[in-house]
TrEMBL record:
Matching Pfam families: DUF6938
Signal peptide location: none
Species of the source: Candidatus Wildermuthbacteria bacterium RIFCSPLOWO2_01_FULL_48_16
Domain (DUF6938) ranges: 232-318
Name of the protein: DUF6938 domain-containing protein
């Protein structure tokens, strides 16, 4: 455990930023992350700005389900955070977006974030944040310590770089090589960009190898994958059992922080009802901290295990316990795509937003996940892929090809002299 500590900051807007911050708590002063939009003593004007932004995002995400009009409205909103195609290279030469200009406008006109930075400046240790606006606030209001910004997706929009990227002193912890290259194209100096990987919780990374040894056996009932790639499996995991598992297949479905895809769970439950009753599959429905989502899930089926907690800390603890026993994770391509590095194969729901489109492309390229097929026929295609060893292959691909040491890499960087 490091003796030197840093301020670790996130925001209560979706799980992604908080999930990354949670993995860095060993680095954080007091062992806790500061919520930039709800910390003790936050000025009412600052809280109102944050609350307005969060309400707007969650409303737009849920509104996307409205036929015809929902897609149109969301497409207009998503345009402001669009990530251009990587080629041609001229796509990197982008002017600040309207969204970015609004952030700086609120800082200049309404002193947004000034109180927070003044408070942290009383003890200017390194500042590590998982939300770009907080890093911009620190730079704008003259934070006296180093400023580190952790990228929480596989690629980044222009809004992650400040107004004058070539003059910034913000240092970036890039999740992927693509994210690092994208930041440099936006104008962020090369020496301010470090490819660290996404920070994953230590309680999962320390046990990833042993958990995958069990999972490979569960995901390969016909032994097809283990026989074909036994040397690869042995080189990374050591001796793996060639016995056929009799335990139920553990499938975990996780919705996003805005609850935008909870209705998908209904189709999954209906399709797998008989398999749950027969003990062929154990379905975990992750509601996070959303009470209304948990209630909705509990009404779907008494056979499903609902993961719900009142606080974010409790939720992460329960979610991590569930992941260790999970064979397959079904999720939209949010920050959870990085959890494939633990050897958990992914089923990818439809992406919501430009960043999730890029996340999906990245994880499919790695080979650590597959796109969902028609949820109404989950009971058919899920078990076909399982029998064929496709999920076992995806589990190994994520474990072999993806970075698991993001939290350790970031800690070393931040605390280096």
């Amino acid at each position: 455990m490091p003796t030197k500590k840093a301020w670790v900051l996130a925001v209560d807007m979706g799980y992604g930023h908080q999930r990354a911050a949670h993995a860095l708590l060993l680095l954080a002063k007091g062992g806790k992350a500061i919520s930039a939009n709800s910390y003790p003593g936050i000025p009412a004007t600052d809280r109102k700005i944050w609350d307005t932004a969060r309400s707007f995002y969650e409303t737009i995400s849920r509104f996307k389900k409205v036929p015809v009009v929902g897609d149109l409205v969301f497409a207009l909103f998503d345009k402001f955070q669009e990530i251009q195609e990587f080629y041609p290279e001229t796509h990197g030469i982008e002017f600040p977006t309207m969204q970015l200009k609004q952030v700086y406008g609120l800082m200049k006109k309404r002193d947004w974030g000034k109180h927070l930075i003044e408070k942290l400046n009383k003890e200017p240790s390194p500042l590590v944040t998982t939300f770009s606006t907080v890093a911009f606030m620190a730079e704008h209001w003259g934070y006296q310590g180093d400023i580190w910004l952790v990228i929480t997706d596989t690629d980044v929009a222009r809004a992650w770089a400040p107004l004058r990227p070539n003059m910034t002193r913000i240092r970036y912890c890039a999740s992927t090589e693509v994210a690092a290259q994208r930041l440099e194209r936006y104008g962020v100096p090369h020496h301010h960009i470090f490819q660290t990987g996404f920070p994953l919780p230590e309680e999962l990374t320390l046990n990833a190898k042993e958990d995958l040894k069990r999972r490979v056996a569960s995901l390969d009932p016909s032994l097809r994958y283990r026989k074909l790639y036994q040397e690869l499996v042995k080189s990374y995991l050591g001796r793996v059992s060639f016995k056929t598992e009799t335990a139920p297949l553990s499938l975990t479905f996780a919705v996003g922080g805005a609850g935008a895809q909870k209705d998908l769970a209904s189709s999954i439950v209906k399709s797998l009802e008989h398999d749950m009753r027969d003990g062929r599959v154990q379905l975990n429905l992750v509601a996070g901290t959303r009470k209304e989502t948990a209630a909705y899930f509990k009404e779907l089926s008494p056979l499903a295990n609902v993961i719900f907690a009142k606080t974010m800390e409790e939720y992460f603890h329960e979610f991590h316990k569930t992941l260790r026993k999970t064979d397959i994770l079904w999720t939209k391509p949010s920050e959870l795509v990085f959890y494939a590095a633990l050897g958990i194969p992914l089923i990818l729901a439809s992406p919501i937003g430009s960043q999730e489109v890029r996340n999906r492309e990245w994880v499919l390229k790695v080979g650590a996940g597959i796109d969902q097929l028609d949820p109404k026929f989950t009971h058919q295609w899920l078990f076909d892929f399982w029998e064929n060893g496709n999920f076992a292959e995806a589990a190994m691909q994520g474990f072999v090809e993806m970075e698991r040491g993001g939290a350790e890499n970031i800690t070393k960087l931040v605390l280096s002299p």
